[in-house]
Amino acid sequence: MIELLFVIKLLVAITFVIGLSILAENVSPKVAGILSGYPTGSAITLFFFGLEVSPDFAAKSAVYNMMGLTAALTFVYVYYIASRYFKRFNILLSSLSAITAYFTVVSILNFIEINKYIAILIPITFSFLFIRLFKSIENINIKTKAKLNYKILFVRAFFAALIILVITSVPKFVGPTWAGLFSAFPTTLFPLMLIIHFTYSKEHVHTVIKNVPIGMFSLIIYSLVISIVYPLYGIYVGTLISFGAATVYLLVYKKIRSVLDKRELKRLSKIGE
């Protein structure tokens, strides 16, 4: 059973990280940034919490996972700031700064008495805050794509596999509070940022970061639904329902964004006339 879980976690990690990195290269870092907020890493973590411990444990962890998203948003913000100012060892120092910021915020959150209302309000507030803070970042597409080979694919997969395996081992050593907070660690986003930063430039990473808070709302919805449906329907049906809710958000956002973009183009065309 342990060996099977190891293989599953490894394969899922490889799929998500490689998929997002290829999406960033062939579609845009903007789209990858939005979808990186889709419940991937946290979904994997919470699912295995439910499978390895219990659905109730995973449901309680999901509430703290929502709070932990505040730390995840702080993670990307600090990475953005650090990558702008460090001239040498940019990726290393940006990563260390972001990880330090994440665990600092998580440590503070651990002392806050949390209920579902607080757990929803705080990450939503921070998401809107970071959308505003990232407003000035320019969306830049990747023009010259790296040629993929087995070595590059292996390196891309390694980071996600390592991080997810570490984080999903947390509930064996800590309670649901810390487990939930740790489960919000950007397990797929962080490797994606490293891949894009190392392969291309910090400007491309900034495009990913700019769009993370938008996608983060889908993860808030996912964790909220998990906290409700896991005890009622179990981890398999509960996961499907939660993914459905998160997907509906992204589809609605896409539709609204499309309407707003059309209105903006129409406005600009009138000005040009």
What does this structure look like?
The protein is mainly alpha-helical. Helices cover 81% and strands 0% of the residues. It is globular. The N and C termini lie far apart (67 Å).
Provide tags for this entry.
mainly alpha; single chain; 273 residues; 81% helix
Give the distance, in angstroms, between the N- and C-terminal Cα atoms. Answer: 67 Å
Indicate the overall shape.
globular
Task: Count all strands and give the number.
Answer: 0
Name the helix and strand elements from N-terminus to C-terminus, one letter apiece.
Answer: HHHHHHHHHH
Poorly predicted residue ranges: none
Number of helices: 10
The proportion of residues in beta strands is under 5%
Helix content: over 70%
Overall structural class, as computed from helix and strand content, comes to mainly alpha
The overall pLDDT, averaged over residues, is 82
Largest sheet: none
Radius of gyration: 18 Å
